[in-house]
Design a protein that fits this description.
By secondary structure, the protein is of the alpha+beta class. It has 49 helices and 31 strands. Residues 505-778 form the Reverse transcriptase domain.
Length: 1273
Amino acid sequence: MSVKITSLNVKGLNSPNKRRLLLRSLKSAKSDIAFIQETHINKVAKVRLTDHIYTVAVSAHSVVKRNGVSILFRKTCPFKITSEVCDSDGRFVLVSGSLYASTCHLINIYAPNAQSEQFWTDMTTLVASLPPGMVIVGGDMNAVPCAAVDRRSQTGTDRAPGLSGQDRAFYTFLRRSDLLDAWRVLHPDDRDFTFYSAPHGSYSRIDLLLCNAASMARVVRADIHSITWSDHADISLQLAVPQSSGPWKWKLNASLLRDPDVIAQTRVALDQYFTENASEEMSPATVWAAHKAVIRGHFIKIATFRKKQKLSLALDLQAQLHRLEQQHKADPTPSGLVALNEVRRALKQLFLDDVAKSLTWSRRTFYEQSNKLDSLLARSLRPRGTYKSISSVRAGNGRVVTSPDAIAQVFTEFYDRLYNHSRDQGEGAGSATGGIDDFLNSTPLTALTQAQSDTLGEPIAMPEVSRALAGLNGMKAPGPDGFHGGYYKTFKKILLPHLTNLFNALRGETRLHPDMTLADIALLPKEGRDASRPENYRPISLLNFDIKLLAKILADRLNPMLTSLIHPDQVGFIPGRQLYENTRRGADLVWWAGSTRTPSLLLSLDAEKAFDRVTWPFLFRLLVRLGLPDNFNVIKALYENPRAQIKLQGASRSPFTISNGTRQGCPLSPILFVLALEPLLTRIRQSPHIQGVPLGNHRFTVSAYADDILLSLTDPLRSMRHLHDLLTHYGSLSGFKVNLTKSQAMPLHMSPEMVADMASSFRIPIVRTSLKYLGVSLTSDPTHLFSANIPPVIRQIKKDLEDWTEKPISWIGRIHSVKMNILPRLLFLFQALPVAVTRRDLAGIQSAIDAFVWQNKRRRVARKILYRPKTRGGLGLPNLYMYYCAAQLAQVVAWHAPAADRRWVTLETALTSPDRPHMALWLPRPSRPLPRTVCPAIANSLRIFDLACSKFSLATTPSPMTPLFRNPAFPPGMNLPDFKTLEASGLRRFGDILTGGKKVTFADLSARASLRPFDYFRFMQLRHYIDTEALVPIANTPLNWFEKLCSAASVPSGLISTIYYALCSGSKEWGELAYCARWEADLQESLTGDEWEEIWEATAKSSICVTHQEQSFKMLFRWYTTPVLLCRMGRTTSDLCWRNCGLQGTFIHLWWDCPRVKEYWGKVGRLLTSIFHRPVHVDPWDFLLSRPKTGFTNPEQSLLRCVLLAARRALASQWLSDVLPTMRLVKAKVSDVRLMEELTAIVRQTYPNSRKLGICGRIIGSYKLKCISPVLN
């Protein structure tokens, strides 16, 4: 193995085609480090020289478009950068760092053309100042080491041996810097050149790679290549690196699955294979494993043939070029130069055609995904990561290793120990199993019911496999077999029956093939940790997709049953439970400790490698104890002798067995972990020696989100001793290990002596003011909860917005950026923190968002319009305060869920006993019996509810949700125990007094619950109150949207979005839409609300390309500047139309009423008539605002929107001009859209169903569309 360094003068990289050509050339040449000269990129240009292969570029640019040098690093290159020096004139760049633990300095030079002794003197000083290590200097020196052999004149004779001034200065630099010409050292008797000067007709070798003695010792090869697309030849050298035997690993090329021919061939091969091999006599596991080998060979054969076919012409031209080049260098005749240039042009054109196809596919990606709520926009917002290659690691003995194999071996040994710490606890270890059984049997765990067990044990059905397949991301990194999810989704009709058969066979005696349970371990460095230590990496298991699919099926079966198996104290990975439940509960407990002055301790436990340490004997015995059926032992098939191997670039892979742990990356892993953790949490809850917070009949001791465990203890010293013993015992059985030194304890109202005693006894770090838990800081003083959490996040967001301001993101893309990146960060805090937030608190960040959306320029659309949802005529820019209200109201809705399902609801109900928050909030504010000094979280939720009620009418007045008991209007009901049995029968609120439209009777209630004779008296008291206050009409009042949410049996998904949309849609703050009124005034026609909704929907669907869609919104919002507006602003003196019609240039005039524009729209109408073969009425509502036309099918409506959008975009492109666009330009825009839509349909595998593409062909007429077939080949 070697590191390849390439140097090339590119003579300008401002063209996207040339940048793509450079990067593709480097990739094809397998260069690890590239020295690039003459980039001609100035300092202010927003041009990137990186892509997904070459992820790091260190550049020196000039102020003007000249000079410019860059050093590019491949993402797999083991070079670790430590410092950079960039010349302000773009003449050189120095990068220092380490290459396999050896200090290395890279200098890329573009020397002046004219004699410049000062430049070479500066370079000599620079090299001399470098610390000891390898030095490699490369670039265009514009000088030669020896003119006698490194130059050749037009006549073919050598230049006189005398050196020019530039050559002499360069030679002095070489001698004083002790640098060697790598190519000359390895080719002492050869003559070759890197540059041909056409004006002088001479060759020279001015592109060089120079090495000092330390680096020259590692050079194993140096080459001069042909001059192809640049006017310089690229040169390269290869450095020997520590030996590695990393094998080539096959991975299915996703592009093959976009080719209909390949898909058809593969279907035939699969049908043939399974027809010949699938039988009752043959094990399904063997048939399935063998099919992978067969299809792998099938894809390799196709890919190899295509590569040879694609490269054959390029290889022939390169061979001709090399032969002619050598002939011309030896005998530079004019005829030889003509033949050489002809071949060179042909080869360059071939490269450019390949680049054009690549750029077309890239344009398709940006057409569909740019500025959209998608990964492309997310990546553009993310700071460009530093180089992540693992170049060195510290072994257990403290020695630093640098070779890929040695690094992989260190990680292999580390994870072998981690994943096999319980190797002696196999299923046959009787004593261990007995101890596990004793522990589990003495723990009061909830088991599955027989019905649940039967459901879980049913055979796997094909629709179940299909649903699981649809729920998995098909393009994530594959496992060791190389097949990603795209393969399974493309051929699911053939594969699903055999997969279903295999999965069901595993319920019996069938076992998986060993290769199926092999996994690659990808290593992700933990942020802020020492990257030289193996424990500071997060191991992600890349499972084979079929194994992941099986795990997904099992997870989908177990998920609905988790709520009955897992106590509400656990909220992580449990359907219907959320993270904020634990943070709100933690804040409530801190307030309780302060209000009661009870000595308490908040303890956050740090579990060491929690998922990786779970022992399988404990896990499998637990599953039996929980009542999982015997035929659900498919789980065991996943954990029967699995193996793993470290995935590290350039290193050989050594599989090792695994005997404990749940693999991160497996869909089943989090479920198995929370099940394994439940016995510990149950023991903590049930232990009389571990004292939690006692409130009413409840005790709040522990809460957990996966391995993030928080304990609230009221007898800290005694509880800690018993907790320590329990953790030790549980850890010896399950593998769970707590790192007390990394855990945190926050004492609340404990004496200094108690705190000191606890710190010395348990070695736990003590925090006084705040404790970090689940991403928020829980403060010992509840009044500091806001300041400790929200201002730091707002400061970081403002900084991010400033950094993003100059990014090339469109207007709507910026709104999407806020939705995708900013809103989730703040919404997390709005949910997790029960604190009061006012509009003023968010005014600064809301203004910063506005400035980002408008790039610190004039606002073109009112903020209130942007806040509106798209379905209500806006763009959905997040209103942060409204989102805060929605998040708080979502927790008000959660109050109404059964308290047993949510421990924070149980806690807050106990804090307000005998009142209940979900009942009291429906009472008028003066009538609420809740004390004013209530818990801050409850008080804040009530405040937000009351505020929203007054602004958005959340409740009818009076409401059917008003409680009957603890209602001051019904004095007997203030003593709740007297009415407890009536309440248990379902009589709680005004709305409950009716059954089937009639008043409920005592007999009705007796049928629902066991009522006592005394309850009849209470019922009559209640009946009297109902009749006296005339509550029947109130009970008959229909529930509004918020009341329906609160009365639902369960909390619906997407609750915050539902509430936010309702608040925004019903907000009194929006007022009338001014742009609607202006459109109606201009077009002298009023539209109904339904018609405007159709226009809003059509605008949002005008294109899948957000950049194109943006024009539709700009038209809707009347974005464009007009002569009238410019004159009013004082920018111009005339308000007449730009198109010289002599009329006033209003908005509607420029877009519709201008005589020249009317003629343009008439042409567009005739074009549409020729497409649809029927008259298309030219109507401004349809042509400008895409109002759906009656009588057109959905595909025709889509095509109509496409053509009209292209026509509007063409007109907008000539906005400030007196020239109108031609129909040729309109057709060109439509043709480009057609090409992008067809390519997108191919990628999405919807091409046969894309009906509008067939219709689109009618648009072209005499205009010739560029053929799509070259793009596909």
